[in-house]
Structures are given as structure tokens and as C-alpha cells.
Amino acid sequence: MRGKRRIALWIAAGAGYAFLYVPLIIVIVYSFNNSRLNAEWVGFTLNWYDTLFHDQDMIFAAGNSLAIALTASLVSTVLGTAAGVAMYRYPTKLLSVLVLAPIAIPEILMGVSLLIFFVLLNFTLGLVSVALAHIAFCIGFVAIVVRARLAGMDESLTEAARDCGASPWQTFRYITLPLIMPGVIAGALMAFTLSIDDFVITFFTAGAGTVTLPLQIYSMIKIAVTPEVNAVSSLLMLLTLALIIIASRVSPTLLRSQEDLS
Amino acid sequence: MKKLLWLAAASLAIALPAAPVFAKDEFHLYNWNNYIAPETIKRFEESCKCEVVQTYYSDNEELLAKLAAGAKGYDMLVPTSNAVEALIKGKQLKPIDKSQLPNLKNINPIYLNTPFDPGNKYSVPYAMSTTIIGYNDVKMKELGLPTDTWAVIFEPKYLEKVKGRITVLDSANELFAAALKYLGYSANDVDEKHWNEAVAVIKKARPYWAAFNASSYIKELTVGNIWLVHGYSNDIFQANLDAQAAKRAFHILQGMPKEGAVLAVDNMVIHKDAPRPDLALKFMNFMLEGKNSSELTNLIGSGNPNLEAVKYIKPEILKNPAIFPDKAVEAKLEQLKELTGAQRRLRNKLWTEIKAGR
Question: Is residue A75 within a helix (H) or strand (E), and if so which, with residue range?
């Protein structure tokens, strides 16, 4: 009976992982396919990566995407952490609603309203407007993660620090911040990945000549998906994976924060 | 954490120089992807001593939505005729100073002065495509099917032979237009009785169709899974290029139905807030030159309204009756007009019925 249940569990878990990862693996495998059509396997080649590295448009777009994602994740992590701490300290409904609403609002609405807002301010659309928009929607995500981390923190630690004469800033800097660091890093990573693959909001807030990777890929798909698109997606996956590994090195508890909390 | 910050700052420093530097004169073209030949851009850049910065859209609605919300910074847009009409109504365009366009005389007069922009106050034609039949030449020959009539898409007696090997566009407007043309009406016919006849034709044919497909039919054709499609001429041209590159044993050819078809003309227009309307006019006149216009046709097999371009177009494209139709068929090509709100609601209702298979 137990054995059977165990097998069923393994199958369910395997199916779950397969559902998540098989499409990704297919994308990677076909980036090495020696066929422009990419409909069936023809042969192994690295040509698509070569094409990719010589594709000025694509490199330009990737540069923009990286610059935006880094700026957006850095700024939104600082602001989002502050927001998360505030939501924990002053648990009023209004504050949470204000911080979290941008997460719940449909992206298209957020994109259009930001565009109208920028136009009203006579703000030139470009990299800066896209970065600002990304910061706006990333703050909420960082705040949620940070608040969840704070909720699991032992309150007596900060009280002890205060008792020992630490100022509120010192308490935050030396006690609270190190304790919630896994949450902060997780938030930053989330912000980075959300920013680098955002399409809808970017589409509306990007100006003339501002191209990001998702915008570039989307406009290419309309013609024909060559393995070059697979190649750039594979590199993007690699980058995300590398980030997660770096983060888990910097903060070993990050990937098992749940267990750590209990 | 400090390390991570440093890492981030360092990568930011590497990534930032990729941002545009606003030193040279720039011309901002908001265009469809792959809708201008690279050598054409290069030559224009040399002649205007400026840099062409392209941004892409993949749907007229995308363009309209973005401009309606107030986006600016674009000098030139290349919308399809019905979108030009919407942009004119939305007061988004700048009138063209035609004295700056000596090359306008190169355009075939039948593509000028259309109801979408009477007198071409705001727009000049750039390139065009048609919605036609695409087919696998080997299979069609084997089965003995005609490829010059909509009947092959709608008549069960033909469809029986290609059951499950045919797709039609997933677009109510395009499919209704094809059915209306097949019945001998105008593609822009708005008579409800005629629409119901079209629905009957479509419903009778639907069981034989493999899918409503507007995205992956290029690939299905080149692989050989699908033998017959209702699709866009540029897509079918691309499918054949792909099939030849993959050394398939068949060609993907374009069939122009003798009943006529939908024509989509893309036009150059100048945005009202264009930072450099002077460069936009220069570009317009440049693209109206035969050689420059021909390069796009040679690249993607688009139809060309430019009479001077014909000299420079590859002979195999020139003799393709779907890209350069003869006079009789050319007269039966129609550009789709916008529907009124009530008409659109009725069409959506009929379309839902068709798709749901009731």
C-alpha cells in the first residue's frame, strides 16, 4: 500500500517537472538544429549562436534589456525592501493595498496608464521611461517577499538589540537586514527576471528606437521563428540559472528559506 | 551582498554604452519587421547623412493603440490603408508637401486617390500583399485540383481530396471576404443576406479544414503536413523560400483566385509630432524611386505599386501572377474597409457560431 502510494507520488512529481522543463529543454536542443525552418531535427550546428552574436539588432536589444533589468531590480529592491518593512511595522490595510495593487492590476492597463502618464508629463519615451515603469511594477513583488520573510523573524532579536542601546537604524542595519537578506535577494532576483522578460508594459512605455529583447523577439516571430530565437532564449535561461546559483552562494539559506523559517 | 552589488554595477557599466547616443541626425521609422531591405537603409543613410532607427510593430492595432495613447518620437509609420483612415480620423498625421515628392509620379495611378485617403493628402503607397491560395505544387497536381479559384477552399467536391490537409486564416474579416468573393459579391459587401450565404458556405466547408491557422501555416506548408492554405501572399512566398532552402521535393506556390481577393496596401505616413518631418519627406521620395522600392519586393515578394520598380525586380517574381496579377484580376482586388459597430457585432456573432461549429 505504502509502496504503491510512493510510486504514484513519484509519477506525479515526475509529470509535474516534465511539464515545467520539457518545453525548455526542447527550446535549447533545437537552438542547435541545422535548419532554418526548425520543424524537424536535421543536424547539429553552432551557426545560430554565431548568427546571434553578429546580429547587431539583437545585441543592441539585449544590451538595453540588461541595463533596464539591472537598474529596475536594484532600485526596486531598495524601495521594495523599505515598503516591505513598512508594511510589517505598520500593518494597515491601506498601505498593503497601495503597494500590492500594481501586482494585481492587469499588465495592459498598467502599460497604457503609464504611457498616458508619461505623455501628460511630456516625458520623452525611451530607456528611462521603461526602467521607471519596470521599477513601478517590481516594487510590489519585492515588498511581498520581504514582508513574508519578516513575518517569520523572531521579534525578540530586534528588541534585544534596542535594549543593548542600538539606534533604530543600527538595529535595522545589523539585525533586521542580515536576517531578511535571503528575502531581499530573492526579491531582487524576481524583479530582475520580471523586468528582463516583460513585454506588455515595455511595449507601451518604450519610445522610438527603444528595443528590448522581448520586443525584438516578438517582432521576429511574426515572420518566422528561426533557431536564432531559440539560441537567444537558451542564453537567457542560462543567465537566469547563473543568477540563481550566484544568489544561493551569496545566501545559502535562500533556496530553503521555508525550512529555515519554521 | 556587497559583492553582488559590485557585480551588478559592473555589468551596468558594460551594458550602458549600448544606449543610443544622440549625436548624429536620426530618422525614426516605425515599421513592420523585415519590411525594408538592409542595403536600402544603408543607401539612404549615406544620402541623408543620418542614421535610420527602426522600431517594429506586428499589428496595425498595436500601432493605433500606442499612438492613440500619445506616444511620440516617430517620424514615419507604415500602416495598412484602413489604419491610415483611422489615423487620419484621429488627427495623428501630418499632411504631405507633395512638391517635395517628384518621384510620386512612379506610382501606378490605380493605387492613388483611394477612399481611405482621398487625394493622398497624408499617405503614399509603400508595398502591398494579397490574401490568396497557397499550395504544394506536387500534391495539387497529383490530386488534379484547381488552384485559381476559391472553390478549392470552399467546395466539398474538391475538399474531399484534401481533407485535413488544408488550413484557412483565423480571421473573420479575411475568411468572410474570401467567401463573399467566391459567391461573386464584393469583399466589402455588408448585406446581411449575403453574409448568411457566406456563413453557409463556410459551415459546409469547415469539416474538411484542419484548422483556422494564422501563425504556423508557413511552417506546416514547408514541412509538407499541409498542402493547401488560405493565406497572405508574403507568407506563402516565404514558405517557398524556406522549402527550397530545406531542399524539399516540392514548391509552395501562390494561386490567385480568378474571383479576386483581398488586397492590403501599406502606406508611408508622417506622424504629426515627427521630430524630423524633413527627413521623413526625403525618405518618402527616396522609397518612391524604382530601384529602392524594388529591393523590398526582391527580398520578401511583396506586391509593388511602383511602375518604375518593375525594371529592377527579379524576373521570376515579375512573372508570378499572384504578385503581379494581370489587369483583369487586378481590377477584382479589393482593400477591406472598416465595419461599423453594428456590423462588427453581427460579424463577431456569426464568427463565434462558425468557430463553435454550431
Answer: helix A56-89
User: pLDDT band at residue B90, thresholds of 50, 70 and 90?
Assistant: very high
Q: Which amino acid is at A64?
A: N
Could you give the C-alpha distances from B214 to A195, B301, B328, in angstroms and in order?
A: 29, 19, 28
Count other C-beta atoms under 10 Å from residue B156's C-beta. Answer: 11
Please, what is the average pLDDT of chain B?
Answer: 90
What pLDDT band is residue B19 in, cutting at 50, 70 and 90?
very low
Local confidence band at B18 (pLDDT 50, 70, 90 cut-offs): very low
CA distance B193 to chain A (A): 35
**Is residue B86 domain-shared with residue B108, that is, in the same domain?**
yes
CB contact under 8 A, B71 and A115: yes
Q: Which of B12, B35, B60 should be substituted to probe chain A, the one whose Cβ sees the most A Cβ atoms within 10 Å?
A: B12
Q: Which ranges of chain B would DSSP assign to H, the alpha helix?
A: 2-15, 38-48, 60-68, 81-89, 137-143, 151-154, 156-159, 172-182, 192-205, 217-223, 233-245, 277-287, 290-300, 315-318, 327-330, 341-356
- Which of the pair, A236 or B101, is modelled with greater confidence? B101
Nearest CB to A224 within list B55, B71, B238: B238
Q: Give the domain extent around B142.
A: 129-262+336-356
Nearest to A115 by CA among A96, A95, A136: A136
Q: How many CB pairs under 8 A join A and B?
A: 115
A124 touches chain B (CB under 8 A): yes
Which CATH superfamily does the domain covering A55-261 fall into?
Answer: MetI-like (1.10.3720.10)
pTM of the model: 0.79
> What was the pLDDT predicted at A1?
57
Taking the CA of residue B95 and the nearest CA in chain A, the distance in Å comes to 21
Are residue B223 and residue B137 in the same domain, yes or no?
A: yes
Q: Residue B59, Cα to own-chain centre: how many angstroms?
A: 10
Look at phi and psi of residue B252 and say left if phi exceeds 0, alpha if psi is from -120 to 50, else beta: beta
pLDDT at B267 over 90: yes
Query: Looking at residue B81, what is its pLDDT?
Result: 93
Ranges under pLDDT 70 in chain A: 1-2, 222-224, 250-262
Neighbouring-strand partners of residue B29:
B54, B76
Q: A39 at the B interface (CB within 8 A)?
A: yes
Give the number of domains in chain B. Answer: 2
Measured CA to CA, the distance from residue A88 to residue B261 in angstroms comes to: 64
User: What average pLDDT score do residues B130-158 get?
Assistant: 95
**Domain positions in chain A:** 55-261
- The total of other beta-carbon atoms located within 10 Å of residue B13's CB is 11
pLDDT given for residue A256 in this prediction: 55
**A244 at interface of B, judged by CB pairs closer than 8 A:** no
